[in-house]
């Protein structure tokens, strides 16, 4: 039994160190999960993928988190707006074409696994980690777009990995930081959360990722380690593909189980690919985890059989520079991405739009995404200014401190502006200073909130909002169009 094939250590998109090379040669894991690193040029990524192919061969599953929207490990590739943006535009064929373009980009670089689509239904507006990564709140919409996404990937030879089983959409705790607990039965999950998973299994989904969530009415252990929950996927829902754990360094599990023990319990429960991850001294620490890993022999043999089927169905291939050039120059793909972003825009409230091209427009943008400093304003707001300057000839940009805004300075600038656009880019909560500033701006007759991330944060905001569902370049251009035309055709609205 080659137990190491059941482990998929994390690796950075950086030059391979000698320690990493020795680790890979010694243990030859069944797969790797690549995260952002030093490499910013795709030529470097291809060189790394060629090295990994030489070291590990075609029977290796090399995965990456390239969902689209806010979750991108390879932002240099053409990328989709977030899942909720695609669902807001609600064109399944366009979702398929964009996902196909993303899959072709991954194949060109040499990957054979994408850790997507998100199959979760975001049925809790306070969810701090899924949110716009899901295709929405409606099970049918989520299912339709997720199936288009997975078919597009697997048609291109990229294994799609649906996540996070049995559903992460109704939590109000981020499993990166703590263990969520959901008081739901399997019957309750069947009514909503499991519907996209059932459809994906029937459509031939290659991989499934678990959720680090405890369901005490189903079993005592978190889903990743739960024989009841993973057994339900296998025995009742009929899933015989590869089951990945979510990363085992997430606090939901790591605060309770060392990674080697979590991997053992996961394999015993029915998982096949343990995502082990260390950030510091990774090769040495990964080696200690793999050495300590001692899975149940019979469970391990079942998992190895599934791994062998997976690498036969989705073999690793060398990078393809010609294909990469074709993907990067695909104008039809770029048109689809632009159209999807434009179709996603929606309103919360009634923004005072449109804004005339010759009007004086004040763009208010905070320093930093989480209360950063004036010396390091987050680049998304700088990128937002460019499309707004194209749309409005008289644009003034004013950065403010979101923790303690200078209300007097903002008030002076706002008095001379015909329209004020207050931009925010938050996943979880608004900073109190932003709410204070928005309350003051509510006195301006033509102030509007540009919400560049979590659309649920527009609910109860003091200003009417334009929701973009993301902050990619296409979404920022779509925002400028909405401000200039008053058009927001998106189907997903936050009341």
TrEMBL record:
Enzyme class: hydrolase
Record family assignment: Belongs to the glycosyl hydrolase 3 family.
UniProt source species: Deinobacterium chartae
Listed Pfam families: Glyco_hydro_3 (PF00933)
SUPFAM superfamilies: (Trans)glycosidases (SSF51445)
Domain of life assignment: Bacteria
Keyword hit for DNA repair: no
Molecular function via GO: beta-N-acetylhexosaminidase activity
Enzyme Commission number, as recorded: 3.2.1.52
Protein name: Beta-N-acetylhexosaminidase
Domain Glycoside hydrolase family 3 N-terminal: 17-281
Keywords: Glycosidase, Hydrolase
GO annotation (BP), single: peptidoglycan turnover
């Amino acid at each position: 039994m080659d137990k190491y094939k059941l482990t998929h250590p994390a690796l950075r998109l950086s030059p391979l160190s000698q320690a990493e090379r020795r680790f890979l040669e010694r243990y030859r894991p069944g797969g790797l999960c690549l995260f952002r690193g030093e490499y910013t040029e795709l030529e470097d990524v291809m060189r790394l993928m060629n090295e990994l192919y030489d070291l590990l061969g075609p029977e290796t599953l090399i995965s990456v988190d390239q969902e689209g929207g806010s979750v991108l490990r390879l932002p240099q590739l053409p990328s989709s707006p977030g899942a909720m943006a695609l669902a807001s535009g609600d064109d399944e064929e366009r979702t398929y074409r964009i996902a196909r373009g993303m899959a072709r980009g991954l194949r060109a670089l040499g990957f054979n696994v994408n850790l997507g689509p998100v199959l979760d239904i975001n049925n809790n507006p306070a969810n701090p980690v899924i949110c716009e990564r899901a295709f929405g709140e409606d099970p049918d919409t989520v299912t339709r777009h997720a199936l288009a996404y997975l078919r597009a990937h697997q048609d291109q030879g990229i294994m799609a990995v649906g996540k996070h089983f049995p559903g992460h959409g109704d939590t109000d705790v981020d499993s990166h930081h703590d263990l969520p607990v959901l008081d739901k039965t399997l019957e309750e999950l069947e009514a909503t959360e499991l519907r996209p998973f059932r459809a994906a299994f029937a459509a031939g989904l290659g991989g499934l990722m678990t959720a680090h969530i405890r369901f005490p009415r189903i079993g005592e252990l978190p889903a990743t380690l739960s024989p009841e929950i993973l057994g339900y996927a296998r025995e009742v829902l009929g899933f015989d593909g590869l089951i990945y754990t979510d990363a085992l360094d997430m606090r939901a599990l790591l605060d309770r189980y060392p990674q080697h023990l979590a991997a053992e319990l996961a394999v015993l429960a029915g998982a096949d690919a343990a995502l082990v991850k260390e950030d510091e001294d990774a090769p040495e620490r990964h080696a200690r985890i793999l050495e300590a890993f001692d899975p149940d022999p019979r469970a391990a043999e079942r998992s190895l059989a599934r791994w062998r089927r997976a690498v036969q169905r989705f073999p690793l291939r060398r990078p393809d520079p010609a294909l990469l050039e074709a993907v990067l120059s695909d104008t039809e793909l770029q048109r689809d991405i632009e159209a999807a972003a434009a179709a996603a825009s929606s309103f919360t409230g009634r923004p005072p739009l449109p804004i005339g091209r010759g009007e004086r427009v004040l763009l208010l943008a905070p320093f930093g995404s989480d209360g950063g400093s004036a010396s390091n304003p987050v680049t998304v707001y700088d990128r937002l200014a460019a499309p707004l300057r194209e749309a409005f000839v008289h644009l003034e940009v004013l950065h403010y401190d979101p923790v303690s805004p200078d209300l007097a300075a903002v008030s002076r600038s706002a008095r001379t502006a015909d329209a004020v656009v207050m931009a925010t880019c938050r996943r979880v909560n608004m900073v109190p200073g932003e709410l204070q500033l928005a309350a003051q701006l509510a006195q301006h007759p033509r102030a509007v909130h540009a919400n560049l991330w979590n659309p649920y944060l527009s609910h109860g905001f003091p200003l009417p909002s334009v929701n973009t569902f993301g902050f990619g370049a296409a979404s920022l251009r779509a925002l400028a169009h909405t401000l200039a035309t008053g058009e927001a055709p998106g189907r997903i609205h936050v009341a």
